[in-house]
Amino acid sequence: MRELIRELVRLFKQALKQEKQSNSGAGSLQAGRVDGDLTHVTVNNFYAAPEPVTAVEADPPAQQPTVSEVLSLLDQLSALGARDAVLKFMRTEFGTTMVKDLDARALNRTHAYARGVLRRKQEAVHPGPVAGDGHAARARGADRRPLRG
Questions:
Q1: Contact 27, 46 (CB under 8 A)
Q2: Which residues of 64-94 are buried (b: 16+ CB within 10 A; e: fewer)?
Q3: In the chain, how many domains are there?
Q4: I want to staple 111 with a disulfide (CB 3.0 to 4.6 A). Which of 20, 28, 32, 65 is the partner?
């Protein structure tokens, strides 16, 4: 048994002496070959780090609506009789009907909701397509194709 272990140690020492290693590809590939039927290959992939986005390239932050803008929308909605819908939304969502009590997120949501209500009310008062929005051509039937048959 000892002779077998000695023989294996001798073979491993001999194999280690005959090892040849070559580096190529600027450190991306290392291949070593030991005489015999053993081949070892290690592949290392290196990627360049992405460049950080500068402030100029970043999207500008969306402008936050002010309290006076939301109050102005509420005045416009009063003229159309739709102010109560926005106040109900505020009471349901934020627990208040006072615009000055809203935080930035709530003010933004209220502003968007009020704009939507105003747009729908204006469309109800002035039905039909608005020039330049793409609906005018469809209203005239420009997208209709002749029937086959």
A1: yes
A2: ebeeebbeebbebbeeeebbeebbebbeeeb
A3: 1
A4: 65
Nearest by Cα to 32 from 41, 16, 43, 44: 41
pTM exceeds 0.85, yes or no:
no
| Structural domain contains residue 102 | yes
Closest C-alpha among 58, 115, 52 to residue 85: 115
| pLDDT higher than 80, residue 74 | yes
User: 88 is in which domain, residue-wise?
Assistant: 67-125
Structure confidence at residue 56 (pLDDT): 58
103 assigned to some structural domain: yes
111 is a domain residue: yes
Whether residue 58 is contained in a domain is answered as no
Contacts of 131 (CB under 8 A, 6+ apart): none
Query: What's the pLDDT tens digit per position in 6-40?
Result: 888 888 777 666 555 555 555 555 555 556 666 56
Q: Which two tokens stand for residue 104?
A: 């930035």
